[in-house]
Amino acid sequence: MIKEGMQAIDFNMFINDNEKITLDTHKDKNIVLYFYPKDDTPGCTKEAIDFTQHKKDFESANTVVIGVSADSIKNHEKFKKKHSLDIILGSDEDKSVVESYEVWVEKSMYGKKYMGIDRTTVLINRDRIISKVWKKVSVPGHVDEVLKECIALN
């Protein structure tokens, strides 16, 4: 179970056709790793737009924001273009990252069970220790709450 105070789990994901991102790509920065179910769905779109609107505030708090879903790079690019998103989106098609961060869970909708990503945000400090974990995130106000925690780390 991921929890505050533990060492962050390394990851290796494509962020475009040629480039991957790992835990050490942004060595001297805090990392907000936010896991979301699917590109271009209402809650996921709102969350991505909120993070984009606060990008400069996160940068001022020495923090990089990385959204993670199991969508392909092609889907991420369409999603970013459609909504003018200016944040990093990692593609975890093999689900290795969502499984290692324990956010790939059984869900239920209208009585039907399926596997999917539990909306979760993990704040990783510069020492690569998990500072804060938000599970079962409710999108309204979430980005402001995450930003406050990032500012407090500095």
Characterise this structure.
- The protein is an alpha/beta fold and 154 residues long.
- Helix content is 30%, strand content 29%.
- It is built from 5 helices and 9 strands; from the N terminus they run βββααβαβαββββα.
- The mean pLDDT is 96.
Q: Sum up the overall morphology in one term.
A: globular
What is the percentage of strand-forming residues?
A: 25-35%
Report the mean per-residue pLDDT as an integer.
96
Instruction: Give the name of the CATH superfamily.
Output: Glutaredoxin
* Main sheet record: 5 strands, mixed
Proportion in helices: 25-40%
CATH class category name? Alpha Beta
Low-confidence stretches: none
What oligomeric state is this? single chain
- Secondary structure category: alpha/beta
Count of helix runs: 5
The CATH architecture comes to 3-Layer(aba) Sandwich
Distance separating the two termini: 26 Å
Task: Compute the number of structural domains.
Answer: 1
Listing every helix as H and every strand as E from the N terminus to the C terminus, the arrangement reads: EEEHHEHEHEEEEH
Report the CATH topology name: Glutaredoxin
Rg, alpha carbons: 14 Å
